[in-house]
Amino acid sequence: MNPRSTVFSSTLTRRNLLTLSAALGGTALLAACAGPSVGDAGQAAASTAPAQDWTGIKPASSITWWTNHPGASMATEQAMINGFQAANPGITVNMVTAGANYDEIAQKFQAAAGTDSVPDLVGASDVWWFRYMINQQIIPLDGLASHLNANTADFNTTLYDDYKYADSHWAMPYARSTPLFYYNKTLWSAAGLPDRAPATWDEFDQWAPKLSAVMNGAAPLGIGKGTSWAAWWFCNIMWGKGGAYSSDWSMKLDQPETLEAGNYLRRIINDDKSAAVSATDSTADFGAGLSACTVASTGSLTGILASAKFEVGTGFLPAGPKGAFTPTGGTGMAIASSKSPEQQLAAGMFLKYLTDAEQTATFSAATGYMPVRTSAMDGATMTAIYAKKPQFRTAVDQLKNARSQDWARSFVPSGDKYLTTALEQIMLQNSKAEDVFPKASADISTSYDQNVKPYL
User: Fold this and answer.
1) Where is the signal peptide (predicted)?
2) pTM (2 decimals)?
């Protein structure tokens, strides 16, 4: 196998990977998708078990929900819990702050496998839900959703189908986001620029010197680093140039368009000085006026609007020569497979409530994350928000450019980590894409070769 051009030497599709998991009872594939897991997560459930018959099951009286409060949403989440408990007085929801971010929740969830500490409901981010599924730590939700009349047809199809595998959905969308282009309207005006985001990255290149001139030579664009972040927003630049991390299971880090995207990132930071990597938090730096623009999650919108002492503009991510694209991201919510049917039913009832049209609109208004139901996107609550704060509309409108993430990042164990390492070498060490992408490709392939291939 050539690690620069392919991840898996065997023909492996999403469907037959699940078949393999069932044949091996889940245990052989534990190492393949567990990342930093601790414990015997693969023993949680058997994927060959018959579908649960929910008829006659009574919901448990208490469930535990693990969340990281996306978008500083603890108070909002507690209010939603209060509303659910008022409508369902026989069920208590215990909210647990299980981590500061998606990665910390995932690591804790996998460490809890096989213990009494497993929650009933858990955050399942874009780069973690697939591992949960392969490890048989979560249940498919279609049957339960149907039993509860959860009206999944009202979910935005793109956001809901992000969790679809082998004709089943393994999570429901909750705090869902895309990256947005945020800009400081005061600095934009001072530079003589039109009141909008750059339509293309070429246009940004043309505008950057004008912005730098009114910023005492500072780089106008602030960007962030770190896992679950850098390899996410970079998809926009890469896809816009026609590149990709992978096509299904075949690696594409060596194709010219992907290398060109990596080297464009290198150039704007290290040569043009039109972009700078924030030391800690690019969103906070933008809100403090340290950069003229940034690429940040829709989930940061409320915080940015609250902290900025200037008028904030939002726009679509700039297009490349091959078009305008944005990755979807954020987190869904999944139900643990090791819990009793009674607990799963109660968790499903709360999940239905948590993601209904009223609650998703409330959550969106409080945080900036996108409403996940089509009926909520243009409902009364969001329409009022759009009128008051038109920046909220940008993320919803940009969904037309949304694209599902490449499997090398979202499905392959530690794929996001390996890609982030390469991108940080480009950004922070001025490394050429040709020098760092091959190792990322090889590391992703090795993750497969060592943990999956022996069991095929």
Assistant:
1) 1-31
2) 0.84
